[in-house]
């Protein structure tokens, strides 16, 4: 495979960083690389908050469930879906804009995710490590207030960036077999592929260098459907101006 594909397949979440700081120009280049991602109708419905204030980072770490690497990483970015900028730009042309549609929420969320993944790949190509922080959605209202996010902007996830501590470098986590993901013409059952993948994940968890446990992929999904439901997100998004109408 070519070096780009090899880099993409080598991704792992980094949670332990050295004290080395990322140069400012490097960080700006990562953001420019993020901006080069595909964007629906060239809307570019995202903003990125570079959280430099140490007390704010400590507060975000607390609100996100005690994830201390938000504080210890070189740089922490908050990726926000932003429909404020494009809506107001269109309105200034005299357009009779409609706000708060479900489609606008989807466009902004997808745009943000695409942009962030470009930043992640660019960072890893520079020898940096990254870790997405979805835990910011535990307390999105408090984080929005902390970062002074206006209406029609919401925090989708955060990202820790820094130089990895190679002494605690995690192994690459296996992914589902491509046969489970790639379906030909119509949707087909993938129960057998999932069962085989569960066995692969059980071996991985039992053999990895840090955080060994007796589990598999299917059992690890339990929190998503039992405890990490975040039922507050719908009301929060409506309050933000994403009415999903």
Plain-language structure description:
With 245 residues, the protein is of the alpha+beta class. The protein has a domain at 3-171: NADH Oxidase (3-Layer(aba) Sandwich). The protein is built from 12 helices and 4 strands; from the N terminus they run ααβααβααβαβααααα. The chain has a 4-stranded antiparallel beta sheet, with helices on both faces. Helix 2 packs across helix 6. The longest helix is centred in the middle third of the chain and has 24 residues, at 102-125. The relative contact order is 0.17. The model has no long low-confidence stretch (mean pLDDT 97).
What does this entry show, briefly?
This protein has helices at residues 3-9, 24-35, 54-63, 69-72, 84-92, 102-125, 140-146, 178-181, 191-207, 217-220, 222-226, 232-239, and strands at 46-51, 75-82, 129-133, 153-162. It has 245 residues and is an alpha+beta fold. It has a domain at 3-171: NADH Oxidase.
